[in-house]
Amino acid sequence: VSPSKGKTRKATSPESTFDRIYAVVRRIPRGRVATYGQVATVAGLPGRARQVGYALAALRSGSAVPWHRVINAQGRLSLERTAPGGGVVQRQRLEREGVAFDGGRISLERFGWKPRAGRRRRA
DNA sequence: ATGCTGACTATGT
DNA sequence: TACATAGCCAGCA
Question: Which bases of strand B have any atom within 7 Å of the beta carbon of a protein residue?
Fold first, then answer.
């Protein structure tokens, strides 16, 4: 929604890497969580989990991206490591959606997001 | 253009 | 379990 913003991106990609990541994170359903690596893979950026973290770090409050649904591969909140207290907010948001913390950890088996690649309609 | 830094992950010690 | 290492990309001075 910023029509007058110069686009110095690659002509090959209509959107920046970060935008692709945000698009995927936005698809994570409520009450579910995804790991950085998973988001990267779904976004078509396999092996770039780190970039996902950087993309989320670049987010600003008010964004429509459910960043709190992205956790690390250990089922923990990476945000807590960098932003003291920030992890508390993330945890509360998740618990409010029904995501349970077991020993400070989230069970990816139970709450992990299982995206469907081609999602066929009714078999 | 170069160098630093930063919400990751898998692997090895 | 904890620490170190390598791979990855974007934004800023």
Answer: 6-10
Strand C: residues with CB below 7 A: A 16-18, 47-51, 54, 58
B4 C1' – A83 CA distance, angstroms? 20
pTM for the model stands at 0.84
pLDDT (tens place) for every residue of chain A, 123 residues total: 434 333 333 344 567 888 899 999 999 999 999 999 999 999 999 999 999 999 999 888 778 899 999 999 999 999 887 777 778 999 999 999 999 999 989 999 999 999 887 776 767
3-class DSSP state of A28? coil
